From TrEMBL:
Ranges for region Disordered: 342-396
Protein name as annotated: VWA domain-containing protein
Chain ranges passing through the membrane: 6-23, 56-74
Domain of life: Bacteria
Claim: Cell inner membrane is one of the keywords in the record: no
UniProtKB keywords: Membrane, Transmembrane, Transmembrane helix
Biased composition (Low complexity): 353-364
Length: 693
């Protein structure tokens, strides 16, 4: 038993003091001849015997108290060295339970585990897939068809298990199929010095595996046909791939070396569930048949309100935004948006003038078709700037919408492009009500903007209150942007491009004020893109862009990032990223116990359990390559001798709990008992013994 301060043991010599006191205070008796006191002598002998016992007990208690006090200051402890040397070597056996382990490979792994158990002491067995399961015996070891095998998680679990038990002198034996696709690019951890790892490779009987690795819906939106693409493993021979689903049975012959198979058909309904399979004739049948569940959805309807269409159809912001949102994002797919351009939401199609707008300063202006533009000029003449749009006070009065007004209910987002003339209060209220129900709102302004044009929107809380048109002509770049926001997250400067490469005209100064946050700022310090802060998770997003979407201020529509920027903004506004066209795919493993297939959930959606495509690659590496990839310590090398850390005085420092708190508790108990015995003895000395007559 090591001590932190062994010099305090010399203090045990103080235990001689109670002995000296005891010997010096021994009572001496003198004999006197008296009368017949025979009965008194008998009582005195009994009392004397009890007192001697109590004195000896007091002596022992006081000696023990002094010794415990000295030992407590010496601070004994149980060191890690003693604990480690006293404990048996711990062994953990990890068995690969992934889908790439066949029945014959599982039998070989079991035999290897038995040999490892016979060589080592205390053994803990576990089976790993995407998680780790402790096994009570080897009879419980059963690989799961289609399950993934996470070697990194298994090795990490073994270290956590050893750490939780306080064991450092241990051995880990990992047995499995070391697939080349499972190797990390860099070693994930540094191993402790006293843990040895032994890797035992189980080679597959055949390296040929036919598998359907993935199924993808190429046409997520309703079209003439639904197109589903299946990706299969490469082969040097022709194969037949089959799609079967609810009355549909399609077959494709895949030439040698081809990995993609396209199925085009008209589905009987919007949702299709089925299987894509091929005849593998290999040792891994679980990945020869892959379930899928796909569904068509309607594109997100977007209402574009163009405030200044221009003299030709190719000048207005609505035109450029519409083209960007309708651009297809995939070779076989359609755009997730269905934009519709209008020039107002109040349905005055009879050429009449709103009562509040009949002033001599602001004559009514009509679109060529006779539709009244509440947001700006005449499409035929190109006029209608903010300066000649009339009084904001009169135009923004509360005028009821006519029966022919645009129904906002179907639209997932509204874009107000270049508002120039004042909006009626009821129009702003209708938009605000639609936003409160979850629709998104996007507003972009240009140099025709006036405060009167957006006064109703500002009163409804949909536009910043402090906006000034500076008319600046300087071109600037984005200095800061919120990369965590869903509208800007894809522009990471790598594959998604970098918005800082675009030039923007610095023509507005905006004070966001309370309830607004800045998403992007120009290098001059002025905000470019803002968003309204909302505490209601069901309400829609509101964004304001201080820049037009036309070529009037620059070549923004011709930039390669214009289309992805527009789609990213409206992805965030419509929350399109939350919609799914394919069922969630789960892989068998420690957390997923269902068999391969598709399942109906409680909320009516579908889920798919399919084989992990990573297990389709059965090419393996040898033990040396596996150990090098994970930086595993050499199992054949003897472990280093245990060391105990030292403090600055050269004393051994304990790594486990010290004993002094328990010694202090025992010392307190001894002192309590000593006090009780001493009190009892004093009471006996003061009280004369009764005489037995």
């Amino acid at each position: 038993m090591p001590l932190l301060h062994p010099a305090f043991l010399f203090a045990m010599a103080v235990a001689a003091i109670p002995v000296i006191i005891h010997l010096s205070q021994r009572r001496k008796f003198k004999e006197f001849d008296v009368g017949t006191l025979r009965f008194l002598q008998i009582a005195e002998k009994k009392r004397h015997r009890r007192l001697r016992i109590e004195e000896l007990l007091l002596l022992m208690l006081r000696i023990a108290a002094v010794a415990l006090l000295a030992l407590m200051f010496a601070r004994p402890f149980l060191s890690d060295r003693e604990k480690t040397e006293a404990a048996q070597e711990k062994t953990i056996i990890l068995l690969d339970g992934s889908g790439s382990v066949t029945a014959s490979m599982a039998e070989e792994a079991t035999n290897a585990a038995k040999k490892a158990m016979s060589k080592h002491g205390a053994v803990t067995m576990a089976q790993f897939t995407d998680g780790v399961q402790v096994l009570s015996s080897l009879d419980d070891y059963h690989p799961l068809a289609g399950a993934s095998g996470d070697f990194n998680k298994a090795l990490g679990w073994s270290l956590d298990h050893l750490r939780s038990e306080g064991v450092e002198n241990a051995r880990v034996v990992i047995i499995g199929h070391f697939a080349s696709s499972a190797l990390p690019s860099a070693p994930p951890r540094v191993w402790p010095p006293r843990v040895q790892v032994e890797a035992i490779a189980i080679q597959p009987p055949d390296l040929h595996n036919e598998a359907v690795k993935a199924v993808e819906l190429l046409t997520p939106f309703a079209a003439a046909n639904m197109e589903i693409e299946a990706r299969v493993t490469s082969s040097n021979k022709s194969r037949e791939v089959t799609l079967s689903s609810e009355g549909i049975n399609l077959k494709q012959t895949v030439p040698p070396g081809v990995e993609r198979v396209l199925f085009s058909f008209r589905p009987p309904r919007e949702e299709v569930r089925g299987f894509i399979s091929l005849e593998g004739k290999d040792q891994w049948p679980a990945d020869d048949r892959r379930p899928f569940a796909m569904q068509w959805v309607e594109p997100e309807p977007v209402l574009i309100l163009d405030g200044f269409p221009g003299s030709t159809p190719f000048e207005g912001q609505g035109y450029f935004l519409q083209k960007a949102l309708t651009a297809s994002g995939a070779a076989h797919g359609l755009s997730p948006f269905r934009p519709e351009v209008k020039y107002g939401i109040d349905g005055r199609d009879d050429g009449s003038t709103p009562a509040a707008a009949t002033t001599e300063e602001a004559p009514p202006q009509s679109i060529g078709s006779g539709f009244k533009s509440l947001f700006g000029g005449n499409k035929g003449s190109g006029t209608g700037t903010g300066a000649g749009a009339g009084s904001g006070a009169s135009a923004a009065e509360d005028v009821p919408l006519k029966p022919g007004a645009v129904d906002l209910t179907p639209f997932s987002a509204i874009a107000i492009c270049g508002p120039t003339t004042p909006m009626h209060a009821n129009e702003a209220k209708a938009i605000a009500s639609h936003v409160a129900k979850g629709a998104g709102l996007f507003i972009c302004i240009d140099e025709r903007w006036t405060k009167e044009a957006t006064a109703a929107l500002a009163n409804a809380g949909l536009f910043p209150a402090s906006v000034e048109l500076t008319g600046g002509m300087q071109q600037r770049r984005i200095a800061t942007s919120d990369r965590k926001h869903p509208a800007l997250a894809s522009f990471d400067g790598k594959d998604g491009g970098d918005l800082r490469q675009l030039l923007w005209r610095d023509a507005f100064t905006i004070q966001p004020g309370e309830g607004w946050k800045i998403l992007a700022t120009l290098d001059g310090g002025h905000p470019l893109l803002l968003e309204k802060i909302s505490n209601d998770p069901t309400a829609g997003r509101v964004m304001v862009l201080a820049h037009p979407l036309t070529r009037e201020w620059g070549d923004l529509p011709r930039e390669p990032m214009f289309v992805p920027l527009a789609k990213s903004l409206f992805n965030a506004l419509t929350r399109y990223e939350a919609r799914q066209h394919s069922a969630n795919v789960h892989y068998p493993g420690a957390r997923e116990t269902r068999e391969i297939g598709y399942y109906q959930t409680a909320n009516g959606t579908a889920e798919v359990v399919a084989a992990d495509p990573a297990e389709a690659n059965v090419a393996a590496v040898d033990t040396a390559a596996f150990c090098k990839a994970y930086a595993l310590p050499d199992a054949s090398a003897p472990p280093p001798a245990p060391t105990v850390a030292a403090n600055h005085q050269g004393e051994e420092r304990p790594k486990t709990g010290e004993w002094w708190p328990w010694l202090a508790l025992v010392l307190l108990s001894l002192l309590t008992l000593e006090c009780a015995v001493a009190t009892r003895k004093s009471a006996r000395l003061e009280t004369p013994a009764p005489v037995d007559a």
